[in-house]
Write a structure and sequence with these properties.
The protein is α+β, with helices and mostly antiparallel strands. Helix content is about 25%, strand content about 40%. It has helices at about 15-20, 55-65, 120-135, 150-160; strands at about 5-10, 25-35, 50, 85-90, 90-100, 105-115, 140-145, 160-175. Strands 1-8-2-7-6-5-4-3 form an eight-stranded mixed beta sheet, sandwiched between helices. The longest helix has 17 residues, at about 120-135. The protein is globular and about 50 Å long.
Length: about 180
């Protein structure tokens, strides 16, 4: 970490105190880790299609238009795994990415949809595309959802996700570098 630079941490409850002792916490947001326990054959991926590197400008434009910050674990948004999107009239209206790949598990995120009457369905279709893709690979799918985002929690619970554990997204600066 560069001196005085901000970093983002995602920690479980038992790690929170350690982070608070080592860092000046600028913001701490409670999150749910939600894990898919449903049946992959029960979810519908609709028109979701895999995105490619040349779709990145459309992904960035969708996020910007919806006032959402894209978060990637690496500089290459496709390095951890596939991204999926839904196109309407040559315009990306929904998307999601593989945020993090671990042995036996993947974190999905950046699930964004243009605000329309179909946005809930589009988000569900994007999540379903990941569920179906990773079910074939025998990989567990999870996501991190803001604890106060009832719409997102409901969406994932309807798909077969359950709230597994409370986590904290913390924006911090090293105390020694202040």
């Amino acid at each position: 970490v560069d001196p005085n630079s901000e970093i983002e941490l995602l920690v479980i409850e038992t790690q929170r105190a350690v982070a608070e002792s080592a860092f000046k916490v600028l913001r701490s947001e409670p999150q749910w880790q939600m894990v898919f326990h449903g049946k992959p054959e029960d979810v519908d991926s609709g028109l979701a299609a895999e995105l490619a590197n040349n779709d990145l400008p459309a992904m960035q434009a969708l996020a910007k238009n919806e006032h959402v910050e894209l978060r990637f674990a690496t500089k290459d948004p496709f390095e951890q795994g596939p991204a999926f999107g839904i196109w309407e009239r040559h315009r990306l209206v929904a998307m999601g990415t593989t945020d993090l790949r671990l042995p036996g598990a993947v974190q999905i995120g950046n699930i964004i949809a243009h605000q329309t009457p179909d946005d809930f369905t589009h988000r569900a279709n994007i999540a379903a595309a990941f569920i179906k893709t990773y079910a074939d690979q025998n990989v567990k799918v999870f996501t991190i959802v803001d604890q106060h985002d009832e719409k997102a929690i409901r969406l994932f619970e309807e798909l077969g996700f359950t709230r597994e554990r409370l986590m904290y997204r913390m924006r911090c600066v090293l105390k020694d570098n202040l």
